[in-house]
Each structure stands twice: as structure tokens, then as C-alpha cells.
Amino acid sequence: MFQTSAPKLLIGTECARDAVKSIDKASVRIALVTTTFRADDELSSNVIDALCRASKRGVIVSVCADTYTYLEPRGFNFTSTKQYSARAYHALKLERKLKSSGVSFHWLGRLSNFGFTGRTHSKWLVADDTVYCFGGVNFDGESFTHNDYLFRLNNSDFADQLFAQHARTIKADKSGHAARYCTIPLDKSSTALFDRGLIGNSIIYRRACELAQAATDVTLVSQYCPTGKLSRILHRKHAKLYFNHWQNTKGVNTAMIRFGMTLTHQHTLYKRDQYLHAKFILFTMPDGSKAAITGSHNFMFGSVAFGTREIALETTDPSIIAQLEKFFKNHVQ
Predict the structure, then answer these.
(1) With b meaning 16 or more CB within 10 Å and e meaning fewer, what string describes 5-29?
(2) Max Cα separation, the chain?
(3) How does residue 111 score in pLDDT terms, banded at 50, 70 and 90?
(4) Considering the domain boundaries, does residue 3 fall inside one?
(5) Residue 115 predicted with pLDDT over 90
(6) Which of 53, 219, 236, 297 ranks highest by number of CB atoms within 10 Å?
(7) Average pLDDT of the chain, as a whole number
């Protein structure tokens, strides 16, 4: 069981700047998993340049990005050089830059037979013994401007475990395999939860339902409208829900949120202009104690049904919950 060392919540831009410092300090290993990964502004370019510098000085650098980021309706051929879309072209250009610097780069989800299955929605960065995770920030310029965060913690044991999970993710993805969920205790009050791609097998969604069922008060913050069993529990609990309204989104997000709201008859209390991308639930129990789940999961049943890889933290740590409550007050409410 691992002792955490004061996890600190960093909003998107803070996370990007801090990550560059940690990458530049790294001397042994770096592992990055992100759903979207682009060099489309100064912050994202700085992260990519730092990864290249690290690799050139002998650090083991492994980067994984989900292919769904660059897929477009007509499809995306990773081997042909003809008729690339602009997004696909820049994706391959970035891949070549990283590989030319010695970075081990992997597209996750290439063996998926259907666009929504086999996805990796987890987000983490390991730089030696410093870890950034348990939030929703992806590593591209647009994502850094979203209403979102990651937690930074310095924990050598958990960094070892997450680096091992990183290797397992690559191996499983290459073979088209999935695995049952797993958990890693950080200390007596916090446990890391991993959904590892097996369809219908989500410890994160299950624990969200169990805690919501037991709680007397629930506040949910997410990019999307919650669906499935959890949504039904939240209805009964008269939970406070904060997610983007479909009228303030575009593209596939509009369709997904509109469908979710129509299906569940849920309403959102989120009124801010900034695009909400954070994902956490605050629970108050009958005895007054508090718990939280924070991570990459949007609490939609679709993520469970399609076997999406996710990571989250379940915690009763007062310091972590206080940071989530502060983020909620300052950025969501």
C-alpha cells in the first residue's frame, strides 16, 4: 500500500507548464497516455519539444495517443500517403518528429473493428516519480483551455505501478486484447481504479453507482450527461448535475449530449461559457463523511458498454476532496 504525497490539483494551463518542468528534470523514464495529442499552440509544442529533448538525452520516453482523435467520417489510412485530411497529416507529422528523436510512439485503437470500441480515454503522465493523472486534461492546445484539471503527485511506488500499467496497455492494444478492471491502493483513503477495456467491466462506473446509492447528497461534474443505472440513481437522489448543455457544443458532442438529456430527462446546472471537461463526483454520506471519484470517466454507460479504457481515483482524503470542492466553487458553480 502506497503513501501519497500531497496530490495537487492543477488546471489545464498550469498542468502543461508544470509537466514541461517535470519532463525536463526526468532522467530515467517518461510515459504519456492521452486521447488527443497535437502541437497546435505554444503550450502543447513546449510539451512535445520537452519529450524530444528527454529522449535525446537518454531518457526512456513512451507516448500513446488514441487513434480516434484523428479519425474522420471517411476513415483514416495510416499507411497511405494519399488524400490525408489536415488532421491526419499533422498527426503523422507529429509522430515522425517524436520517432526521429527516439521517442517510442504508439497509436492505441488501431485494431478496433468499430469506431467506439477499443478506445483509450485514460490520461496520465509519468516523469520519473512524478505522476499527473486522475483528471481529464489531454495534451493539446484546445484541451489546455478547457475547464479541467489533473492531479500531480510525487509517489515512486505508484509511478512504478502506473509505468507497468502503461506497458500492459501497449501490449494489450497491439494484440487487440482487453483485461478485467484492476485497483491499486495508494493509501488507506485513496485507491486508483483502472478500466482496462473489457466490455461491460467498469469498476469506475460500478463504484460511482454504489457510492451514489449510499449517499444522501451527490454533486456530479462531467463533460456529458450521465446515463444508464447511475443516471436513474441520481434522479432518485435529486443530485446536482453540471455538464455541458448540447446547445453550447458542436459536432458529435452535441449529438451525444442531446441524446443523453432526451433519454434520461436530466438537466444541467452548468451555466459558464468555458467548455466543461472535468469529471468528478462528490458524495456526502449519511454520517456526514465525504467521498469522491475523480478521473477520466464521464459516467456514461456507453463507456462501459464499449469497453473504454479509463482511470480514476476513489478517495475519502479530506485534502483531495477540499481541492475538488474549491475547483467546483471557482470554476463550475
Answers:
(1) bebbbbbbebbbebbbebbbebeeb
(2) 63
(3) confident
(4) no
(5) no
(6) 297
(7) 92
pLDDT of residue 216: 98
Half-sphere exposure (Cβ direction) of 184: Cα atoms closer than 13 Å: 20
DSSP state of 182: E
The whole domain housing 135 covers 8-175
Closest CA to 293 of 273, 310, 271, 305: 310
CA-based torsion, 86, 36, 48, 40: positive or negative: positive
Listing DSSP states for 55-102 in one string gives: HHTT-EEEEEEEGGGT--TT---SS--SS--HHHHHHHHHHHHHHHTT
Q: What angle do CA 221, 197, 258 make, to 5 degrees?
A: 40
**Neighbouring residues of 206: CB distance < 8 A, sequence distance ≥ 6:** none
> Could you give the number of structural domains in the chain?
2
Q: What pTM, to 2 d.p., does this model score? A: 0.93
Which of 175, 195, 228 finishes a domain? 175
Rounded distance between C-alpha atoms, residue 29 and residue 162, angstroms: 12
Given a cut of 70, whether residue 77 has pLDDT beyond it is no
State the Cα–Cα distance between residues 255 and 13, nearest whole angstrom: 28
* pLDDT given for residue 195 in this prediction: 97
The neighbouring-strand residues paired with 185 are 191
Q: Encode pLDDT of 125-152 as tens digits.
A: 999 999 999 999 999 999 999 999 999 9
